[in-house]
Amino acid sequence: MRWIVSISVLFVLSGLFTACMNQHATSNTADTGKFGKVTESKVIGVYKGDLPCTDCEAIKTVLTLTENKEYVLEYIYVGKSQEAFSKSGKWELSNTELDLSDLDYRYKVEDKQLRQLDLSGKEIAGELADRYILRQLP
Q1: What would the pLDDT profile of 53-95 be if each residue is shown by its tens digit?
Q2: Whole-angstrom distance, CA of residue 96 vs CA of residue 117
Q3: CA–CA separation, 29 vs 122, rounded Å?
Q4: Which residues contact 69 (CB under 8 A, 6 or more apart)?
Q5: Domain total for the chain?
Q6: Do 92 and 115 share a domain, yes or no?
Q7: Residues 84 and 25 in one domain
Q8: Domain of 91: which CATH number?
Q9: Same domain, yes or no, for 47 and 79?
């Protein structure tokens, strides 16, 4: 009798373990399924946003990524100068991160937007975190 109880408990525990593992796998798949695999064709386009600025109102930013893996980054320091600055170069996609040549920081590729990362490659946290986003124009 004791043998039957032991086996029954093992079956119940293994069933619970399997159910938990399946639930965990399903939730991970749902998280990555929103945008799908990041590919070069998904990042090509024009991105725009107003990034935070310490000594001006904002940094109006436009980033253009072309099919031949070149970029043009244009920005204006709003409230400080009307002069437009620009940089250009090549871009590379590595997993979900976009690397622009001649820039110290990278961007994390998300669904129809790019999130600027800090100089160590981590997401920017804090009150202004949502302002470090460039949204893709339609």
Answers
A1: 999 999 999 999 999 999 999 999 999 988 999 999 999 999 8
A2: 12
A3: 23
A4: 40, 90, 91, 92
A5: 2
A6: yes
A7: no
A8: 2.40.128.640
A9: yes
In tens, the pLDDT along 90-118 reads: 999 998 999 999 999 999 999 999 999 99
Nearest partner of 86 among 69, 104, 63, 108, judged by Cα: 63
- Residues facing residue 65 across a β-bridge: 45, 71
Residue at token pair 């804090």: 126
Amino acid at 72: V
Please state, in angstroms and as integers, the Cα–Cα distance from residue 123 to each residue in 35, 119, 131, following that order.
Answer: 18, 10, 12
CA 78, CA 85: separation in Å to the nearest integer?
12
Q: Is 81 exposed, middle or buried (0-12, 13-18, 19+ CB in 10 A)?
A: exposed
Please report, as a single letter, which amino acid is at residue 53: C
Tokens of 133: 């986003």
Does one domain contain both 53 and 85?
yes
Give the domain extent around 12.
Answer: 1-33
Q: How far apart are the C-alpha atoms of 20 and 28, rounded to whole Å?
A: 13
